[in-house]
Amino acid sequence: MHLEGSCRCGRIRFSVDSTEPCPFLRCYCSICRKTAGTGGYAINIGADHRTFQLHQGQDDLRIYRAVIDGKESSGQRHFCGHCGTALWIYDENWPDLVYPHAGAIDTPLPEPPEHVHAMLGSKAPWVRVEGQPGDDRFDEFPDESLADWHRRHGL
Predict the structure, then answer these.
(1) How far apart are CA 115 and CA 55, in angstroms?
(2) Residues ≥6 apart with Cβ < 8 Å to 27
(3) Please, what are the domains in the chain?
(4) From start to end of 7-141, where are the E strands?
(5) Are β-strands 25-27 and 42-43 bridged in parallel, bridged antiparallel, or unpaired?
(6) Interatomic CA distance for residues 103 and 97, integer angstroms
(7) Where would I find the H helices in 5-153?
(8) Rounded CA gap, 74 and 122, in Å?
(9) Which of 31, 10, 8, 11 is nearest to 99 (CA)?
């Protein structure tokens, strides 16, 4: 699926192709919650970095690397330096992948048949975990990848 994305102010525009476009995984870790999670979580989708194109906004693009256990993360969290929109995550350890934030995608995304709630062990106490009965919930990372979840659901 071809995806078009942008920041809130429109200064940054990008596109990417995705075989995992269904926004099903809600991450409640403190990094996602504080950088992109207005509901106490963030939703990323999987995409093919080899197809990624930045159409405009290079000068407004900023990168944040979280510090985890005293070390700078290899994950690069891209955001707009003007309006602050969280856009995508890229990690050089997985050079073929990029993880756009579902909220930055302008293309209509498919509705997920269920949600997976990850990193619940570090969620904020004020966050209510919503969802459907039977949604998978994990204190840390889920047992399956984004690609495996999509395959299992025939998406």
Answers:
(1) 31
(2) 37, 41, 42, 43, 44, 118, 119
(3) 2-152 (2.170.150.70)
(4) 13-20, 25-27, 42-43, 46-56, 61-64, 67-68, 71-72, 75-80, 86-91, 97-100, 116-118, 136-137
(5) antiparallel
(6) 18
(7) 30-35, 146-152
(8) 20
(9) 31
- The one-letter amino acid at 73: S
pTM of the shown model? 0.90
Position 100 scores a pLDDT of 95
* CA pair distance 57, 10, nearest whole angstrom: 9
pLDDT in tens, 73-86: 999 999 999 999 99
pLDDT, tens only, 21-63? 999 999 998 898 888 877 788 898 999 999 999 999 999 999 9
- pLDDT of amino acid 11: 98
- Among candidates 93, 108, 92, which has minimal Cα distance to 45? 108
